[in-house]
Design a protein that fits this description.
alpha+beta; 35% helix; Aminopeptidase N
Length: 860
């Protein structure tokens, strides 16, 4: 499973999970984390054996109940579904034939997950076409089938269930990661929503496929499957495995049968129905297909076209050839998550579809690689319980790094590493839990930046510790030994121990089974041919371990050559003496930038300048630039940053441009001239946009010509940055160009226009705002709605009523917490002079059920 929503991915994933070409939207408010809470004050508790109180930090969550792996009573071996659909009622009319055998103990009952069904009949297939009716008990959650006798573990039997599934009538619920758990979704079922296609698609993880077919909905089950879909002849279908039959029917429908002969967990089953263009590709004789809306057929290969190369890369990297029958990817409307790794048929949200102009600013390799890696880690070898979810997600997250490292180079991979680490550290401000956690309140709690970003960084440290050869050999053994089975963390550990010969309990214990991360203070001095390097672990050791940290230290001499030392930190306060024949130009702790840690490294200005000049990855460049930022007025520092505007890696150029914001030091004219050059000529749109944003930080200075020219840029990112710059400094020349942007089919430009019109709009834009309330995705609405509220401040009262009512409905009823929060902020902007609106806001706060959102309201 991938993060919350791809449009939000630009994401709330916090929600912008980086990959190589992911961009930060200039001058737009950061989307809040899904689990944002008002920080609790540290609580005091008294341990019975102590007389003193222990301060409990705010990031230590209360413990949930123990969540063991599901007990296996019966093995689900094969599922055959025959499905039709009632679009008007949003129901599935189905027949499920399940092939089952007892796992170990004899069984006289079969217990299935089946949520909210109407059960028509249940029959035992006795052979030779004969059937026997079976009795059953059903509480609308679990279906208990009474078998005709007791079956031993050596006996297989088949049960056929005729049913109607009504997922749309189930109680509405969801989580930050999966915003709805209906399992199966009808999109625009009556065809009444103009411009939106009719579709059916499913989202099974975590245990939501039992909303549309009866199954044992647990990750430690495995089944082969055959799914038959009868649909209107105009629609395409997709499911797991291969299309083995397709028959046109006399009534204008068509019946397609999809068959997967290799077993996978029930949550990985999927179906999709709709009007899709299918763009064909291939890899080693296997079909690789891309299902998109017809208008995006021309750019499907531009989006997904690296997939065959990825299949080749990961097959070689893991030493296991892609083990499934085919590989298809489909983009659907109104998807409730970011993407989902259903075996052989990955579902993406509509945001992955893009025009050629949009692709100038971004690519989607990171999410494509993530879901593909799941076909080894998650689908081929599956976590036996949700407590072990990082065995799926950490590997998929690290797959993003591996692909970027291979395809785009060390700097780009280092940027992935830095961004993921920062995302985890942001979450760790409010939440620190073990990676593998057998205690949690809700399954969806496992979908967090621990399971993803922390897990990926832990795997990187493991790779650095054992070395590349041992790391990938161990992964090969792990995949080969446990293929088509469910595993827990110890099996991964034991595989690495077998390959390396090292007892790795210490590594797996501190990184997988304990919470938190090291917080390090690094200082050094030089005396008598020795560098004295002091490493202090300052984290709260009451709830976090003192870590064992194998790490490299580089000592740079005056000859621009470095000597690398391998040290192992094992104490809370430890000093290492390292030889150096001369006073070093730089002492760099964690020279490989591998540690998952919060590091405060004391480096002088000269050392930071030296580091930037000799950095061998993006993280070191970023560290140097951030360290130099407060000293930017210094002539040496400003010259160094100006030089960094020519860095070979675009991320370094962006960081340098951002560091020069509000620059007031010497050679200001040279700095501004260089930024104007970058804003107009850099080959990378992210860099041009960053330079424009930095120019806009110089108050009372006119760069209108640069901004006006940028409105014609090929990049939507640059156009958006120019709009943000012109928002507070509009020019007469820009007005006609801005007017022509109103119909731009790009959400980034639309949200930037919303910010522009919030301060510079007129009544003419009122209907434009109202129209885009219907077209924007959740993360964009979060920014757009407060701007709409600010815009309405200047509208005549009689004109504001319609907009206020729309905001109120969104703030009260929208299923997305982001939209509710944005609408609330929009109403707050209008309510400054209205007691009636203040009363409405108070009522919205009182009736909001999300306690985290209430906390955000109280901060406004």
């Amino acid at each position: 499973m991938k993060y919350p929503v791809l449009g939000t991915l630009s994401l709330v994933l916090a929600l912008h999970v980086v990959a190589l070409a992911q961009n930060v939207r200039p001058n737009q408010e950061t989307v809040p984390k899904a689990n944002t809470r008002k920080k609790a004050q540290p609580a005091e508790v008294v341990f019975p054996t102590e007389t003193a109180t222990v301060i409990i930090p705010s990031w230590l969550p209360s413990s949930g109940p123990t969540q063991p792996a599901a007990t296996i009573l019966s093995d689900l071996q094969h599922t055959a579904l025959d499905l039709r659909f009632d679009w008007a009622k949003q129901q599935v009319i189905g027949s499920a034939t399940l092939t089952v055998r007892p796992h170990f103990h004899p069984q006289s009952q079969l217990v299935l997950d089946a949520k909210g069904f109407d059960i028509r009949n249940i029959r035992l297939l006795t052979g030779n076409g004969k059937e026997k009716a079976l009795t059953y008990g059903y509480d609308k959650r679990q279906l208990t089938v009474n078998l005709d006798r007791t079956y031993a573990r050596t006996e297989t039997y088949q049960v056929r269930i005729a049913y109607v599934a009504k997922p749309n009538e189930l109680p509405a619920s969801g989580s930050d990661a999966i915003t709805s758990n209906k399992g199966l979704f009808f999109i625009n079922p009556l065809g009444t929503e103009k411009g939106k296609p009719r579709q059916i698609w499913t989202q099974g993880e975590m245990e939501n496929n039992s909303n549309w077919f009866p199954t044992i909905d647990k990750p430690n089950q495995r089944m082969t499957q055959e799914i038959t879909l009868t649909v209107d002849g105009q629609y395409k279908t997709l499911s797991n495995g291969l299309l083995v039959a397709s028959k046109k029917n006399a009534d204008g429908t068509r019946t397609d049968t999809w068959k997967q002969v290799q077993p996978a967990a029930p949550y990985l089953a999927m179906i999709a129905v709709g009007d899709f263009a299918v763009v064909n590709d291939t890899w080693r004789g296997k079909a690789v297909d891309y299902y998109v809306e017809p208008k995006f057929a021309g750019t499907a290969k531009a989006v997904f076209g690296n997939t065959p190369q990825m299949l080749d890369f990961f097959s070689k990297k893991f030493g296991v050839e892609f083990p499934w029958e085919k590989y298809a990817q489909i983009a659907v409307r109104d998807y409730v998550s970011g993407a989902m790794e259903n075996t052989t048929a990955v579902v993406h949200g509509e945001g992955i579809q893009a025009t050629r102009r949009e692709l100038l600013d971004q690519n989607f390799d990171w999410v494509i690689a993530h879901e593909l890696v799941h076909h080894w880690f998650g689908n081929y070898v599956t976590c036996e319980s949700w407590a072990n979810l990082p065995l799926n997600e950490a590997f998929a997250d690290y797959g993003e790094f591996l692909w970027t490292e291979y395809k785009y180079g060390a700097d780009a991979a280092s940027m992935v590493q830095a961004t993921a680490l920062n995302h985890y550290l942001q979450e760790a401000e409010d939440k620190r839990v073990p990676l593998i956690r057998y205690q949690y309140r809700e399954k969806e709690d496992m979908f967090d930046r621990h399971s993803y970003q922390k897990g990926g960084r832990v795997l990187h440290m493991l790779r650095k510790h054992v070395g590349d050869e041992a790391f990938f050999l161990a992964l090969n053994h792990y995949l080969t030994r446990h293929k088509f089975s469910a595993v827990e963390i110890d099996e991964l550990r034991m595989t690495f121990e077998e390959v390396t010969g090292e007892d790795l309990h210490w590594f797996f214990d501190q990184w997988f089974l304990q919470r938190g991360h090291p917080e390090l203070r690094i200082t050094h001095s030089y005396t008598n041919g020795q560098v004295s390097l002091r490493v202090q672990q300052t984290q709260d050791s009451t709830f976090t371990p003192i870590y064992r940290l194998p790490v490299t230290v580089a000592i740079w001499g005056n000859n621009n050559q470095s000597t690398t030392h391998r040290i192992t930190v094992t104490k809370a306060d430890q000093t290492f003496l390292l030889p150096s024949s001369q006073r070093p130009s730089l002492v760099k702790f964690d020279d490989e930038s591998q540690l998952l840690a919060k590091i405060e490294e004391e480096l002088s200005q000269d050392e930071l300048v030296y580091l930037l000049q000799h950095a061998h990855n993006y993280q070191q460049k970023q560290q140097a630039i951030e360290g130099l930022r407060p000293k930017v007025a210094d002539l040496t520092v400003s010259a160094t940053l100006r030089n960094a505007l020519n860095d070979k890696f675009w991320g370094g150029r962006v960081a340098a441009a951002e560091a020069l914001r509000r620059y007031k030091g010497p050679e200001g004219g040279a700095v501004r001239k260089e930024l104007q050059r970058v804003a107009t000529t850099d080959t990378r749109s992210d860099v041009r946009a960053a330079a424009i944003t930095t120019l806009n930080s110089f108050s009372n200075e006119d760069f209108g010509q640069v901004y006006d020219a940028a409105l014609n840029d090929s990049s939507y990112t640059v156009v958006s940055a120019a709009l943000a710059a012109l928002t507070r400094n509009p020019t007469v020349a820009s007005q006609p160009k801005i007017a022509t942007l109103q119909e731009t089919p790009n959400s980034r430009v639309i949200t930037a226009l919303g910010g522009y019109y919030a301060l510079n709009g007129h009544l003419d834009q009122y209907e434009w705002f109202l129209r885009h309330l219907e077209t924007l995705q959740d993360a964009d609405l979060y920014t757009f709605l407060p701007n709409f509220g600010q815009f309405m401040q200047r509208m005549p009262p009689i004109e504001r009523e319609k907009g206020i009512k729309r905001l109120e409905v969104l703030a009260r009823n929208n299923p997305s917490y982001l939209v509710r929060l944005g609408a609330y902020k929009g109403l707050s902007a209008v309510a400054e002079r209205s007691q009636e609106l203040k009363t409405i806001l108070q009522d919205i706060r009182a009736k909001e059920k999300d306690e985290g959102l209430k906390g955000m309201y109280n901060l406004l």
